[in-house]
Amino acid sequence: MSAVSGIARRAGRRLLSSLPALLGVLVLTFLLMRVLPGDPAVFFASGPNAGQAEIEAIRHQMGLDRPVPEQLVRYLGDVATGNLGRSMTTGQPVLADLRQRLPASLELTVTALVLALALALPLGIAAALRPGSAVDHAVRFLCALGVCVPTFVSGLLLIYVFYYLLGLAPDPTGRIDVFASSPPDITGFYLVDFLLVGDLEGWRTAAGQLVLPALTMALFVLAPLARITRASMLAVLGADFVRTARSLGLPRRRIVVTYALRNAILPVLTIAGIVFSTMLGANVLVEKVFSWPGVASYALDALLSSDYAPVQGFVLLMASLFVLVNLTVDVLYGLADPRISVE
Amino acid sequence: MNVLSQPLARPARPSTLRHAAFVLRHNPVTALAAAGAAGLCLVALLSPWLVPYDPVASDVSVALQAPSAAHWAGTDQLGRDVLSRIIAATRLDLAIALSAVGLSFAAGAVVGALCGYAGGRLDRVVGRVVDVLMAFPLFVLAMALVAALGNRVENIVVATAIINLPFYVRFARAEVNVRRDAGYVEAARAGGEGHVGVVLRFLLPNVLPAMAVQISLNLGWAILNAAGLSFIGLGVRPPTPEWGILVAEGARFITTGKWWLVAFPGLALMLAVLCFNLLGDGLRDILDPRMRT
Amino acid sequence: MARAPAGGRGRGPPSPSPLECDLLDLRRDHTQEGIGVTKTSIQARGLAAAALLAASLGTVGAARAQSRAETLRYVTGAAVNTLDPTMPGTTREAFAISLSTYDRLVTFGRKKLGDSFVFDLDSVRGELAERYEVSPDGLTLTFVLRPDAKFQDGTPVTAEDVKWSLDRAVSAKSLAAPQLLTGSLTSPDQFKVVDPRTFQVTLPKPDRLALPNLATVYAIIINARAAKAHATPEDPWAQGWLKDHAVGSGAYSVDVFKPGEQVVLRRSEAWTGAAPDKPAGFKRIIAQTIPDPATRANLVEKGDADIVIDLQANDAQALKERGKLKVIATPQFNALTLISFNTRLPPFDKLEVRQAVASALPYDAMFKAALFGRGKPLFGATWGEGDPKPVFPVPQPVTLDLDKARTLLAAAGLPDGFSTTFSFNLGQAATAEPMAALIRESLEKIGVKVEIQKLPDAQMSTQISEKKLPFFTEGIVAWLPSPDYFYRNFYTGNQRWNYSSVDDPVINELANKARFERDAAKYDEDARALNLRHLALMPQIPIWQPNQDAVMAPSVEGYTYQFHRQVDYRDLSRK
């Protein structure tokens, strides 16, 4: 009981202490966007005859006719009341856009991470069991190979081979086949929602759409995960309790899986947390290539058209997720290893 | 990827060289990577003399030709020789990567070391700034910086350096912090060495080797980052050849069947990133033998 | 969204046909049949369906195939961002949607241009109007509405709705007002309800573009009652609500609207606006945003998409060569690509400098390498008797002649050349980037050093608007491509679209005079004079009109190049 409340206190403290960083992110993004040489009002007053009057009207509507410090204060006030502004690109409130698009990004990232872990753990373990062997080198090489191709290239190549040439993959046009119906909006995660309504066929369609983009991202993050698995396993395999287990003649499989892996998983978890938050922000290009309706491609479009509000909202969202993921990892750590909570 | 495993490395030992030789012998992959990286640097240095054609000279009459004896890697949309462009790009890409990583390394080491040594208010303020940077989605930050500053080479370098910075600052800070009360530091202080001298002459030399390992890994990442920026149109200015731009342009021709436009620049880029990554891995083993046992 | 109006015009079915009904329901529920309609199940039917759907397989498969055949899947790089086309920032794709969901009073006919059909500015026919009349003095336009015209909620379209809609167009803060201004439509006082079916527009001057303006996407007729219910004191024209809700009388109603992803339209069976007594050709339209151009090419080639119009020139070229698909290439005759000089910034304020650059551009190489020859060149002409023609743009007598360029530079007092930047838009990089590289190389030969600047779209438009760019390439479009319209909008005034910032008394006077010229011969004379003046001043160089390469499945018919450079879905049907 006291352990749980300790963790809760700790989590609360961590959350509070991350608030200044979030504020910093907010202010920095705001200023960065104002430094952008593009004037969104000019860009969006794109009608064939839009003149200065229309531009001024849009500037007024976006609040750009006020001094920057006042804009900042207003913006912070808006954010505090949950209003992230309106996107000129989609014409919708940013909050609504993000809420609709975040599940798509999360679903893709989680799938990619699970896929990457499913590949990285066996590879890392195999490498750790015979350090310096051909297997070890092969694993290292394989992982390095994955991380050396830009995601937009691997994505386009996967599409070309599996969709265009072989016809194995469904058309790379978003989260679900366009002729199929999307599931009712329960969690926003298609895989979960299809299961909830018991629509297995729909589930398979959605999963099919996920395979290629998730694979593209997974390949890219294989290296750090496999590397940490290997290192962590090596350390544990050399530990006394593993030696003891060995000397007792326990089966090798049991030693590796039950004793070693369980103890080696914590550092992997930490890195997986970092990888996850990095991936969320870095899947801009994957979302673009696969027409994935996620938050990152949304932010990219907004950035190129100097549409301030969506970019600011996106960065704030990513920073908050970063804090949350770190916190989660922290809490998991605390649960798994009570020694850590004793500060 | 900017993900670091493990708390790294102890200070370099006197037997480092012998150990390095040992590791290289037993780790052919690292040896190959080192050779590859050296080769790339050589190509970069000699590129003006290696190119068979002027990399920016167009000749529309031979546009989009498949690889041949005259053009080993074919020609692009404007009839420019792809091989020459790849070779010429090597210099620019390595320069971007080296200067970006070098910049963040130098700045990170100094700032981090000062914070770790001095602690107090400076440390807290810098810590906050680093927290803010860490919480940013890095690629989007790089995009925004380049978009705001203009897509010139120096701005791409700065943007890449800034997104690498937090790591180096944290690392240097942590390592210095651990050592600031070590015996040899106390001894130096007792011997009349000023604070700056202690940091520069005694602490940094002990921290740098461990940090240096990360340089090689980050080099590969910096190249990929520049390529990504090129793909969304925020790369270096045309017609300057740069791998990312070549790949991004070539990717437009995948469906048209002009495979050489993406394949050869892509291979060059892959090779470079691969070499730097494997080399970084190997270097880590050399500097931190514990990782291998 | 509202269902199709019940029983409109006496012959439409009282409710959607049984098949359509099924499909609609399937869209919403997740029944067993719903599963059967998904595409993957058909692909995998050998595997899974045997157990699941053995008995009904045949019928479901056929239904699915039929529903696919009755659906038009259109893929595009840009997003549909609003259902109200007057909103600032509306994309072309959104214009296309609004053209189908709303009706206007009138619409353009079509004519043959080469092998393809294009809209015809000179033939304006009724859309919501059964007929219209222009008074002899050209000052009064009278429209009589179709008796059977109904909004999608089943209520009849009245002259009151028309008045409210056009009042909104000229009064609300939107992009409609500045457009309608080009047709002398500026105030609600000009719009009068004569009786429930008769509507009158009065003009201060006989403006030749008044009627065509009523056919553009901004002059939509909105269900006033439905819209007014959502108007507020701050938003009297319901602009906020109409962004997400289409309440028109058009050929299609909106089923799904996901900004930035896709829009699904469903046919209104009662609509017979275009061809007499026939609804639109497709039952369902899916307009989907696919940002990567190579993927769009893949989709249409694999038959997964039915039509795409914004492929890269090289992909369109390759698809045409492969011969499996229908490629209709129409030079965008109401648009053109320009190389512009800022005539206020030195050294481009000197005529000789502009002429020197015009003689140093590698036109042929650019046309072949950057555009893959997919367009209509506007360079290399020789003007003889009867030239220039009274249209805009006309092919220009400019060619690559480096010696002439050097002489002109020397005459300008810059024998050693100068340095400048050449800018283009990120969105046009596919053609502009190779173009820029060629220009840079060619100008280097006459001593002009060019630095290439690739700018994100918003930055480019801002810098153009602030007149900061010395030398750049951009495109212009006119929905109503008459010469005076081009010259007034793109060559006069201190505004963004006057790229070269010319302020020439001759152009100003001629363009404004031609606007109200009712004598065709005199109008042509003015247009010729304008074209001559353009060449003499050389404020910018028209280089080509890029093709709109519409690549479509061989079964798709009826494609017409439209003024808004989008597909008008109502034109299309499947063979």
TrEMBL record, chain A:
Main subcellular location of this protein, as a coarse class: membrane
Superkingdom of origin: Bacteria
Signal peptide: none
SUPFAM superfamilies named in the record: MetI-like (SSF161098)
Record keywords, A-Z: Cell membrane, Membrane, Transmembrane, Transmembrane helix, Transport
Matches recorded under InterPro entries: BPD_transp_1_N (IPR045621), MetI-like (IPR000515), MetI-like_sf (IPR035906)
Residue stretches spanning the membrane: 15-36, 108-129, 141-166, 206-226, 264-286, 314-336
Family annotation (Pfam families): BPD_transp_1 (PF00528), BPD_transp_1_N (PF19300)
Subcellular location: Cell membrane
Membrane topology value: Multi-pass membrane protein
Chain ranges of the ABC transmembrane type-1 domain: 102-333
Family: Belongs to the binding-protein-dependent transport system permease family.
Name of the protein: Dipeptide transport system permease protein DppB
Species of provenance: Methylobacterium crusticola
TrEMBL record, chain B:
Xref: Gene3D superfamilies: MetI-like
Transmembrane segments: 29-51, 94-117, 129-150, 156-172, 219-239, 259-280
Superkingdom of origin: Bacteria
PROSITE patterns according to UniProt: ABC_TM1
Compartmental location: Cell membrane
InterPro entries tied to this protein: BP-dependent_transpt_permease, MetI-like, MetI-like_sf
KW Acyltransferase (keyword) present: no
Keyword set, alphabetical order: Cell membrane, Membrane, Peptide transport, Protein transport, Transmembrane, Transmembrane helix, Transport
Keyword Protein transport: yes
Record membrane topology: Multi-pass membrane protein
Family according to the record: Belongs to the binding-protein-dependent transport system permease family.
The protein's name: D,D-dipeptide transport system permease protein DdpC
Taxonomic lineage from the root: Bacteria, Pseudomonadati, Pseudomonadota, Alphaproteobacteria, Hyphomicrobiales
From TrEMBL, chain C:
Localization (cell): Periplasm
Keyword field: Signal, Transport
Domain Solute-binding protein family stretches: 124-495
InterPro entries: Peptide/Ni-bd, SBP_5, SBP_5_dom
Origin: domain of life: Bacteria
Family indicated by similarity: Belongs to the bacterial solute-binding protein 5 family.
This protein's name: D,D-dipeptide-binding periplasmic protein DdpA
